[in-house]
Amino acid sequence: MAGIDSTVPSPTHTVAPAPAASGASAVPPPHAPGALLQDRLAGWVSDLTTLHELTERLARTDALGEALQELLHAGAALVGARRGLVVLEPADGLGPDTTIGLGLARADLGHIETVPRSSLSYGRILDGLPGGDGEIAEPDLFAEEGLDPRHREVAARLGYAASYALPLSTEAAGRLGAAVWLYDEPAEPTERQRHLVGLYTRYATEYLARLLEVERTRACMKTMAEELLPSRLPRMAGVQLAARHRTGPRGGGDWYDALPLPDAALGLAVGSVTGSGPSAIAAMGRLRASLRAYAVMEGEDPVAVLSDLELLLRLTEPARSATALFAYCEPSLRKITLAGAGHTPPLLIGDRRTEFVETSVSAPLGMLACWEAPSVELTAEAGETVLLYTDGLLHRTGDPTDRAFARLHAAAASVPRALRHDPDAVVDHVLRTVLPGGLDVADSEEDVVLLAARFE
Description:
Elements: H1 33-59, H2 64-79, E1 83-88, E2 98-102, H3 106-113, H4 121-126, E3 136-138, H5 149-158, E4 162-170, E5 174-183, H6 191-227, E6 239-246, E7 252-261, E8 265-276, H7 278-298, H8 302-316, E9 322-330, E10 335-341, E11 347-349, E12 354-356, E13 376-379, E14 385-389, H9 392-395, H10 401-413, H11 423-434, E15 448-455
Helix pairs in contact: 1-2, 1-6, 2-6, 7-8, 10-11
Keywords: Hydrolase
Pfam families: SpoIIE
Region (Disordered): 1-32
């Protein structure tokens, strides 16, 4: 769109001729050089303005699904269609594979997928069949003698009679997918419409390729973080456990752990490593693995566990800091001994009380030359739940710290009595109440971890 392509056919829109001056004998002929040039310039300006507006709308999308929807809407406007679908199926096989429709319900897309791919325009493009290396126009499906019977049946059922398809491919990323627009009556885009939608689709495909890489990076970060966290929580007599973990698009360093210890004890830990991305995730994995080792050797002394962890962090990663909380639990006695390093205080939830556990003020790991803080002991009543969490839960609210703590306390106190016997229900209620309206699953720079232990 940097310049005007002189090979583009004349636009269909014209400029009305100026009224003839008084005394003029005749209107200039319609093909006069000046009028023709003015008509072409007006058409080019109109087309460039339209393309600029559509690409601006596309650039404002920041999610792959949203961008695919915008591609369908813009393409439908450019080719004069009412419905369509885009099939994302990257040639490298790394996914994600998806199909999104415009004016087509999920059931409609299901019907279309029952048609043999070789008889569908997008199937010929995606499978590299003859004639599938460029645009495919089918101006009158029912007039085609070789139309697949199933395709004819589905087209009649869904009420479309023509289609126009374009490949979504770039030199760098290769083939990403295909877009198809459907007409209710026999029709096909004009030569100028094809030119405009071709320009738009080439730009849109480059943009989709960038969003695809972002989507894959997010999925990779999420998988890495999940693999470094417990695959399942231990089952132990006298205690029930539940955990929730929400990570940001870049992947963060929030983590949790629950591990059986000698003498029928249980170790609970939550923590957060500074930073985000692969380095933070790797540091989180190393810190969690080290804490497990220290907990097995000296778990009954949480201060010693965190002191050893702080020394390791300071020696191996001096540029990084972390917060952590470790609790040594004796389920048979409902006794908990805990220590924290710059971490948020646990929350005790029961029928007769909902209160934050008073912990001593301490610095995060890696911030001081020698970390030390006293431990705290408490005894939970039967049926009470101890909730550990990371500060991402508070930060995602967007509220000041004191108000975020108040919101968390109110959410815990409002857990229905009928749900308090189930720690999974407790953490879900707290998460949805503190972060309503989908904030718990929305993209955020802040990770969230909740770990609940209900004592019987």
